[in-house]
Amino acid sequence: MTWTRSWAxxxxxxxxxxxxxxxxxxxxxxSKTAKGAMIGTAAGAAGGAVIGxxxxxxxxxxxxxxAGVGALTGTAVGAYMDAxxxxxxxxxxxxxxxxxxxxxxxxxxxxGNVTFPTDQSAILSSFYPVLNSVTLVLKEYPKTIIEVLGxxxxxxxxxxxxxxxxxxxxxxxxxxxxxxxxxxxxxxxGFGKRSPIAxxxxxxxxxxxxxxxxxxxxxxx
Length: 221
What we know:
With 221 residues, this protein is α+β, with helices and mostly antiparallel strands. Helices cover 51% and strands 15% of the residues.
């Protein structure tokens, strides 16, 4: 889902849960999840990509906890992400997809040259087995938000790069959902050329910058 779609989904969940009460806090489920949705919507209107991402994550977390997905606490967070990281590294060995750790978050870097045809957003059929392996792990470890982030190099117009990055992120997100990953967990966003990880003045740098990242964020209380 895009950030906008995720906020809409949260609103639906909130309405369905309108008459329930959280057994731990006594707070109605609707007010809890609707609050996250409104924060996400306000951030999107402000146009801040980072703020919007954080708000979308908060809204998604509220929806999932409201739907009965347990949150991680304390040392369980690190242990859960350790186990997920090990499984992902095992599944993705030799595929060209890297797995890196950033605190309690995991980042899967999917290079554009192995994921998509040049300047297109349709996933290469040869990459489906890799995504299928990722899907197996994501379904085994449901207590994470999955942020699908599209990036490009600096070649071409800003508007073209932004749209291409959005379309590529959406393609990966849609495929994960089609393979049974709960869509409430999946957020997608395109950043165009705004977040390079290498020097765009070299061919090697531009190739590194053309990528889709999966950022796995633990659902915490």
